[in-house]
Amino acid sequence: MIAARVYIPCARCQAPLPEWGLASNHSAFCVSCDSRNETYVFPAAFQAAAPAHPELALEGEAACFDHPRKRAVASCRQCGRFVCQLCAVEFSGAAWCPSCVAAGAGAAKAANLDASRTLFDSIALTAPFLSLLVWPFTIIVGPGAVILSILKWREPLSVVRRSHWRFVAAILIGLAETGAWIWGILYLMLRARPLS
User: Is 141 exposed, middle or buried (0-12, 13-18, 19+ CB in 10 A)?
Assistant: First the structure.
C-alpha cells in the first residue's frame, strides 16, 4: 500500500500544512508562520491507495476500450465501454471511463448503458451490395451510401473498438455506382443525339 500525500499550502506563507493537522480537524496550524488555516479535505485524500497494475487480457476475455491488450474489470456506467483497472474511475459507486468523466458525464441524471448500437458503417457497406440485386435502386443507394458514411463518420461506431474501413469501402462503392449511372446516362444521351 502507498501512503497518500496531501499537499495543501498555508494561506499566508504557502508552506505545506502538516498532514496530521489536516486529518484531525478543520483547522491546521502552519509550522512555518504559525498561522491558523481553516481547511476542509475529503477523507479519501488520507486513504492509502494501491498502485494500479492492469493484467493482460487472455484469449476470449473482454479488453479495455483504450488499452486493447489489458483485461477489462468493469464497464462504464455512462457509455458501456469496457475499462481496465488503470482506466476505471470510481464515482458514485459505479465505474466510469475517462472519456465520460472528462466530458462531464458524472453530472448526468441517468446512466445510458449501451448494450448495442446501430452499426451505420455496416449499413453503409451492405446497402450498395444489396442494391445490385435490383440494380435500378443503385441510382439512389449509391449516393445514399456516400452521404450516410460522411454524416455518421464521427459518431461512435460500436461498443467495441472498430475502424472506419467499412465507411471507406462504402464511399468507394457508392461513388463507383454513382459514376456508373452518370456515365450510362451521358452515353445514352450522346448516342441519342442525331449526327449533323
Answer: buried
